[in-house]
Amino acid sequence: MVYVHMPWQKPTFYTVFDRHEREIGIASYLRINPSVGSIEVGWISMSPLMQRTVMSAEAMYLMMSHVFDDLGYRPL
Fold first, then answer.
1. Cβ atoms within 10 A of the Cβ of 29, count?
2. Going by C-beta distance under 8 Å and a sequence separation of 6 or more, which residues neighbour residue 47?
3. What is the mean pLDDT of each run of 10 residues along the chain (76 residues)?
4. Of 22, 24, 49, 54, which is most buried by a Cβ count within 10 Å?
5. pTM above 0.85, yes or no
6. Rounded Cα–Cα distance for residues 35 and 20 (Å)
7. How far apart are CA 54 and CA 64, in angstroms?
8. Which of 13, 17, 76, 16 is nearest to 68 (CA)?
9. 53 burial via Cβ count (<10 Å: 0-12, 13-18, 19+)
């Protein structure tokens, strides 16, 4: 998966599903700038089913592991 940063690019949104395939949250990558190795996670919204659960931590972990492991960004 390759991300190209363009100033007019909109955030890349992802839906978070639970094991019953219910939509329980959203999060996005934004301000993607491969030339300087920066990316942000934002626009995070979680339903009450997801708030303060292991699912919320796992969703953020999966997004960050994709950024670091698959896309090759470095943590700061």
1. 19
2. 23, 24, 25
3. 48 88 90 83 91 91 91 80
4. 24
5. no
6. 39
7. 15
8. 76
9. middle
